[in-house]
Design brief:
Layout lengths: L19 H5 L3 E5 L4 H13 L4 E6 L7 H9 L5 H6 L2 H8 L2 E5 L10 H10 L2 E4 L10 H19 L7 E5 L10 E2 L12 H7 L5 H12 L5 H16 L5 E5 L2 E3 L15 H5 L1 H4 L4 E4 L5 E2 L1 E3 H20 L10 E3 L7 E2 L3 H6 L5 H10 E4 L2 H24 L6 H14 L1 H4 L4 E2 L2 H8 L3 H6 L9 H4 L3 H26 L1
Helix pairs in contact: 2-13, 7-10, 16-17
């Protein structure tokens, strides 16, 4: 079993500087959600820019793929091309060998087996809990099981980690979106006494009863996702405040700005998914309030903030002269550089290669303040999709038009709330982190959202979506060919 005794304790960040580079040197990191969108960027950044000793990834089995196979597929992805292109083969393999997959089952009270538990408790110093269910339409008890109970079990395990320095609980800025102004603190106002009591309400209920009860409990929150993330924050504050833990709240996370590849994205959730029709040259009008300003953060900026937050959490807990404080919260929002939804279409069109597409795209895609227009367009698009699928069926071709229109329509409905509201926030903890970065840190970590040039950012946004669409299409073709061979 590896030991961390030879590395010694991490250098405590000074009062005036964080010294993030020193904090991660020879450190062992545990990450959940490491195969997801944010998690992949976090793993890549730690390997490429910081001298970590080891990264444990808690990975669930998925179908017939075990954790080691899922990790290998992840390394084959384009996000790691920068590492492959800047280092020799031996160095690349040495870096990848630092990442150790650990099979985990968050449905069980003990999320890992006994051998892995002992290994993690002896070696891990820094924990990033990134894993979450981001389905907005999930029944509340399922959302709580994934976003609250899994975190609860991970932090219970973390209590036994001998050299624990920091835990970053990744939440969302919208966990308190029923408030107009959001401060950097936990709002302990979950109804019915909290998630534990709410879980009890669902025992023995039928699916339709659960759906009705979910809507009643959520109240003025827009969906089960943000409500469950709020419950998780309250759980952290109530049960684990003695740990070196902090809550990091990113807003809408979108494709990368500069690292590791400009425009890189591997999923079509939220704002990114709604831009797919424009990139494909399709018409789509979304209902919303064009004047509302939104908080968005490129994934590389988000990960940079998370990496710094772990160091800051450790600094706070290590400052024996400072009075004990509550769990620190980091609102990763930058109001000065927020843009209105009405300007979003024009920004996205910057990345379209054809000048005519850029001009037409601004007409065919827009945010409209009249719901009837968007509903009418969806109806027409669905009619067109059904006709197209029938024609494809006559020729024995695969039908997908209705499925695509339904997916975009459902996504548009799911995030409609966020196109119709605007928030203000405090971000003092994030600002303070920025001011405390050492010169070495600043060369590696760029997460000042107020310095983002959104026009420059969107030069690669559409191309990133196009590249991911091509990868997904190629993957689907490969799967169909494999099924034909099996048949």
């Amino acid at each position: 079993m590896d030991s961390t005794d030879d590395t010694g304790p991490a250098a405590v960040p000074s009062k005036d500087q964080l010294n993030v580079v020193d904090f991660y040197r020879n450190a062992t990191v545990l990450i959940t959600g490491g195969t997801g969108f944010i998690g992949k960027v976090l793993v890549e950044k730690l390997l490429r820019c910081f001298e970590v000793k080891k990264i444990f990834l808690l990975i669930r089995r998925k179908g017939s793929a075990n954790p080691a196979e899922r990790l290998q597929r992840m390394f084959e992805g384009p996000i790691f091309d920068t590492i492959r292109s800047t280092k020799c083969e031996a160095s690349v393999q040495e870096l990848f060998a630092k990442v150790v997959p650990v099979e985990a089952s968050f449905e069980e009270p003990e999320i890992v087996d006994e051998i892995d538990r002992i290994k993690l408790c002896n070696e891990v110093q820094i924990v990033f809990h990134v894993m979450a269910s981001i389905r907005f339409d999930e029944v509340l008890d399922d959302a709580i099981a994934m976003n609250v109970t899994s975190a609860q079990r991970l932090y219970a395990l973390s209590r036994a980690m001998q050299d624990l320095r920091a835990i970053v609980h990744v939440s969302t800025f919208y966990s308190n979106c029923n408030r107009g102004h959001i401060e950097e603190r936990i709002y302990d106002d979950v109804p019915f006494g909290g998630a534990d009591h709410i879980r009890d309400f669902f025992h023995g209920l039928e699916a339709n009863e659960k759906a009705r009860l979910s809507r009643l409990i959520i109240g003025d929150m827009p969906n089960s996702y943000v409500f469950s993330k709020k419950c998780a924050e309250v759980m952290v504050g109530r049960e684990f405040s003695e740990l070196p833990i902090g809550i990091f709240r990113p807003p809408i996370v979108i494709s990368g700005y500069r690292e590791p590849v400009p425009g890189w994205v591997d999923c079509f959730h939220g704002a990114t998914g709604l831009c797919v029709p424009m990139v494909l040259g399709k018409t789509w009008w979304y209902y919303g309030k064009p004047e509302m300003k939104t908080f968005m953060s490129p994934v590389d900026h988000t990960v940079g903030g998370m990496i710094a937050a772990a160091c800051d959490i450790y600094r706070r807990k290590s400052n024996i002269l400072a009075p004990a404080e509550s769990v620190p919260v980091y609102n990763f929002t930058f109001e000065k550089n927020a843009f209105a939804f009405g300007d979003y279409v024009e920004l996205v069109s910057i990345g379209l290669r054809n000048p005519l597409d850029r001009w037409i795209g601004r007409i065919k895609n827009r945010i409209v303040p009249w719901r009837i227009f968007s509903k009418l367009l969806v109806w027409l698009m669905m009619l067109q999709a059904r006709v197209a699928d029938e024609i494809l069926a006559w020729f024995g071709k695969r039908r997908s038009n209705v499925r695509i229109v339904s997916a975009i329509s459902n996504l548009a409905d799911a995030v409609e709330y966020f196109r119709c509201h605007m928030w203000s926030s405090d971000n003092g903890n994030v600002r303070r982190m920025l001011s405390m970065l050492s010169p070495d840190d600043m060369r590696l970590l760029d997460f000042d959202g107020d310095r983002i040039d959104w026009r420059d950012y969107h030069k690669h946004f559409a191309d990133g979506i196009t590249q991911e669409l091509m990868r997904k299409n190629a993957s689907r073709r490969q799967q169909r060919q494999m099924k034909k061979k099996v048949a």
